[in-house]
Design goal:
Blueprint: E1 2-4, E2 17-20, E3 23-30, E4 38-43, E5 49-56, H1 61-72, H2 85-92, H3 96-107, E6 114-115, E7 122-128, H4 129-135, E8 141-145, E9 151-154, E10 157-161, E11 168-172, E12 182-183, E13 186-190, H5 216-223, E14 237-241, H6 249-259, E15 270-274, H7 288-298, E16 306-311, H8 323-336, E17 343-346, E18 348-351, H9 357-372, E19 376-380, E20 400-401, E21 409-415, E22 420-421, E23 428-434, H10 440-450, E24 462-465, E25 468-471, E26 475-479, E27 482-487, H11 489-509, H12 519-522, E28 530-531, E29 560-561, H13 563-569
Parallel strand pairs: 1-18, 14-16, 14-17, 15-16, 17-19, 19-21, 21-25
Antiparallel strand pairs: 1-12, 2-3, 3-10, 4-8, 5-7, 5-11, 6-7, 8-9, 13-27, 18-20, 21-22, 23-24, 26-27, 28-29
Helix pairs in contact: 1-9, 6-7, 7-11, 8-9
Length: 572
């Protein structure tokens, strides 16, 4: 999993009344201090241009959540009856009074915002620093990231008129700082020439070589994944391409020749570009993360159409490849699509503490929208155990975002044959999101067995993650023409996504709907279709982390997939 990380304090929702220039203003969001890893370089020049995004309050997100659960819960009368694009937008669109209140305030200052999102709940606003300081009663400053020197313009707090409370949700980017450091997949090493590799096998037995290196054949044998090609072109598997990591078609060709010789080596993937995202096919530009994600979707989800969605630097956020902007741009694009992918897998994340709660909630609500339309959204859980983004200098366990969003399926990692929890598999409990109803019983069972271990280091009432797991260690890939061993939940997420994509293909072929948002199914009728992992733990923050146990646990979730059992559980 790509993890973007620095240590940041949470924005506090405390409100303080003040007056400025005759307006009644209240502090809307603030930081208590400059985030660790950044230094202030003084006030930003007044003439400098800013591009801000204004989140308006949606009119009925509670109704949308109810609709999502109705179409996603087995046994519901509406199960599988996914919402249309327009139906989702009626829940998400702000009221006309909210639009009028915000646009009137901006117009009074000679400013005009334009809709940014399909539902109109986000507005884009171009202005100068001086104008931003005035309308939000703040002081935008220039901050530099100590390690990289990258500069960004942010505010430690900002205010809004009291008349806009209940209409304007928040403004971004303000108090959420960019995180330019990218950490690649863990355990990446090139193989020496002549190193042993395994080819595809029709045998149900797990090849002995799988104890040293994982290939598609290993995953097929471990989980009973079929080798027969999918038949339905409408069931598309989307792969998020972020942080400038490009999937390479020549590398995929070589990978298929070596590890899926039963598939044509000319099998490829489609490319969609968001925000001028590139997909450079120069072999020297092939990214390890992107190659891993594509090779273990194309190479495991046999015959399923795979699309690599490459997201470029945002033109409206000053920091190239800023992660939050990339996530936002990707979701805005997909929500605007008439036919988004039926499965979307993403192998990127950051510590939850790095993002303000309103911004995290807004992004999570975007996943809710896409889930209500029938997309299974899958995220790697992270590769730092309970430490989150590979940090050990922590005094509290670090949840990872977006894995903690209640509307996505988070995938942890296992290793070995037989399987045990991978030590790096991130998992735990959110500080932003409460535990959703669908998982409370499973989590309560775990907490009863855990007793008082790690007490005070995590929020026991938070959304628990991961939800499931899959192999995540010693995956063979081809990158820049060289065979490598690579690992992390970055490998687990596309593996699990491939299983869901193949199930969707069979469902559609049988005249049924795809699975959509997975978690209500996984924690109910799907629970018994998982291979329970009961050994291992995920150390971090100078602790042993959480232990894997019978049933759900915050290392491997409900376990790894059993394809035959899942087929029965989904009614095939």
């Amino acid at each position: 999993m790509h993890s973007l990380g620095l240590s940041v304090l949470l924005a506090l929702p405390v409100i303080h009344a003040s007056t400025s220039m005759g307006r009644s203003m209240v502090v809307h969001e603030r930081l208590e201090a400059i985030p660790t890893g950044f230094v202030a370089h003084g006030s930003a020049p007044g003439h400098q241009s800013l591009s801000l995004r204004l989140a308006l309050v949606s009119n009925n997100l509670v109704g949308l959540e109810d609709a999502l659960m109705a179409v996603s819960t087995p046994g519901s009368a509406r199960y599988g009856q996914f919402l249309t694009k327009e139906e989702v937008e009626t829940f998400v669109a702000p009221s006309q009074s909210s639009v009028d209140a915000v646009t009137t305030y901006l117009s009074a200052h000679g400013l005009n915002a334009t809709p940014f999102s399909p539902a109109g709940d986000w507005l884009s606003l171009d202005l100068t620093v001086t104008q931003a300081n005035t309308i939000f009663d703040t002081q935008f400053s220039t901050f530099a990231h100590v390690e990289t020197g990258a500069k960004s313009v942010r505010a430690l707090q900002y205010s809004i008129p009291t008349a806009l409370r209940g209409h304007l949700d928040f403004v971004h980017p303000t108090i959420t700082f960019p995180h330019p450091i990218n950490h690649g997949p863990v355990l990446s090493t090139p193989l020496s020439k002549g190193a042993a590799t395994s080819r595809s096998s029709n045998s149900n037995a797990v090849p002995a070589s799988c104890k040293q290196a994982i290939t598609p054949a290993c995953l097929q044998a471990l989980y009973g994944i079929p080798t027969a090609k999918a038949t339905q072109s409408s069931s598309v598997l989307g792969v998020s391409g972020l942080a400038g990591s490009f999937a390479n078609r020549a590398d995929l060709h070589a990978f298929l020749e070596a590890f899926r010789p039963d598939l044509s080596p000319s099998t490829t993937f489609a490319i969609q570009s968001v925000d001028n995202g590139k997909a450079d096919q120069n072999i020297s530009q092939a990214g390890r993360e992107a190659d891993l994600d594509i090779q273990y979707t194309v190479g495991v989800a046999s015959g399923v159409p795979v699309t690599f969605i490459t997201v470029g630097p945002s033109e409206t956020i000053e920091t190239p490849n800023e992660f939050i902007a990339s996530l936002q741009n990707l979701m805005t694009f997909l929500l605007g699509e008439r036919n988004p992918p039926t499965v979307l897998t993403t192998s990127y994340g950051l510590d939850e503490v790095f993002i303000s709660q309103p911004l995290a909630t807004s992004l999570c609500n975007a996943y809710m929208q896409l889930g209500a339309r029938g997309t299974s959204i899958i995220f790697a859980s992270g590769d730092g155990g309970v430490s989150g983004g590979h940090t050990e200098n922590c005094t509290q366990f670090n949840p990872t975002f977006p894995s903690v969003c209640p509307y996505v399926t988070s995938v942890g990692a296992t290793t070995g044959v037989p399987e045990t929890a991978a030590y790096f598999s991130s998992g735990g409990f959110s500080n932003h999101f409460a535990a959703p109803t669908y998982q409370r019983g499973a989590v309560a069972d775990y907490m009863a067995k855990l007793g008082g271990a790690n007490r005070g280091l995590f929020n026991a009432s938070g959304r628990a993650w991961p939800d499931v797991a899959a192999q995540g260690n010693n995956f063979l890939i081809v990158n820049q023409g060289q065979t490598r061993l690579i690992g992390g939940t970055s490998a687990s997420a596309p593996t699990f996504a491939s299983v869901i994509a193949l199930l969707n293909d069979e469902l559609v072929a049988a005249g049924k709907r795809p699975l959509g948002f997975l978690n209500p199914f996984l924690y109910s009728t799907g629970k018994s279709a998982m291979n329970d992992i009961t050994t291992g733990n995920n150390p971090g923050c100078n602790t042993d982390g959480f232990p894997a146990m019978e049933g759900w646990d915050p290392v491997t979730g409900l376990g790894t997939p059993n394809f035959a059992a899942l087929r029965k559980a989904v009614g095939l």
